[in-house]
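User: Reviewer 2 asked us to show a designed sequence for the structure in our supplementary figure. I'm pasting the structure tokens here. Could you produce the per-position amino acids so we can include them in the response letter?
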């Protein structure tokens, strides 16, 4: 029974085959034979530099370790799932100038949006909690002083807010 079925299948396949037609799609083979253009780091950097950046970042208010900021322009987001959190760093004013409180990490996750166009968009940044979570044990409390937030635009240029006081 099995051999009869295979014989019928073979006959049916021969009956539908037309002479002169290729068995495979030759256009795919031709496309594969053409060399593909390789994207270089220079090409990527040029493309990123052409992206719009941030126009303005300003602090609205500071309440209990949380900073309310208004952002305008194309901002890089952290890429977290269902997250609209921008990439930012916290800098503290010292005798020698502005120093990053926590080193800035420009890595994005791949689950959420990579960037967003905002106009006067309000965002709450939990500065005290963020510093506590990203510090070594015993070094996570914010010292009273002047701080600023630095956001990254889609063109990778960093834009700082004005200074604000954290006590």
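Assistant: Here is a per-position design you can include in the supplement:
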């Amino acid at each position: 029974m099995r051999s009869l079925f295979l014989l019928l299948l073979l006959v049916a396949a021969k009956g539908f085959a037309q002479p002169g037609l290729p068995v495979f799609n030759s256009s795919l083979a031709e496309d594969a034979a053409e060399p593909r253009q390789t994207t270089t780091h220079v090409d990527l950097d040029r493309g990123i530099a052409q992206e719009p950046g941030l126009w303005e970042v300003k602090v609205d208010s500071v309440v209990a370790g949380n900073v309310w900021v208004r952002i305008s322009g194309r901002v890089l987001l952290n890429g977290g799932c269902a997250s609209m959190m921008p990439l930012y760093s916290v800098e503290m004013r010292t005798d020698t100038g502005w120093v990053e409180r926590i080193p800035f990490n420009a890595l994005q996750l791949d689950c959420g949006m990579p960037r967003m166009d905002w106009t006067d968009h309000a965002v709450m940044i939990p500065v005290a909690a963020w510093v506590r979570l990203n510090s070594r044990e015993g070094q996570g409390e914010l010292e009273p002083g002047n701080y600023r937030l630095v956001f990254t635009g889609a063109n990778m240029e960093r834009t700082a807010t004005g200074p604000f006081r954290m006590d």
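For the response letter, you might also mention the following. Strands lie at 54-63, 66-76, 88-94, 97-100, 115-125, 145-152, 158-160, 164-166. The mean pLDDT is 81.
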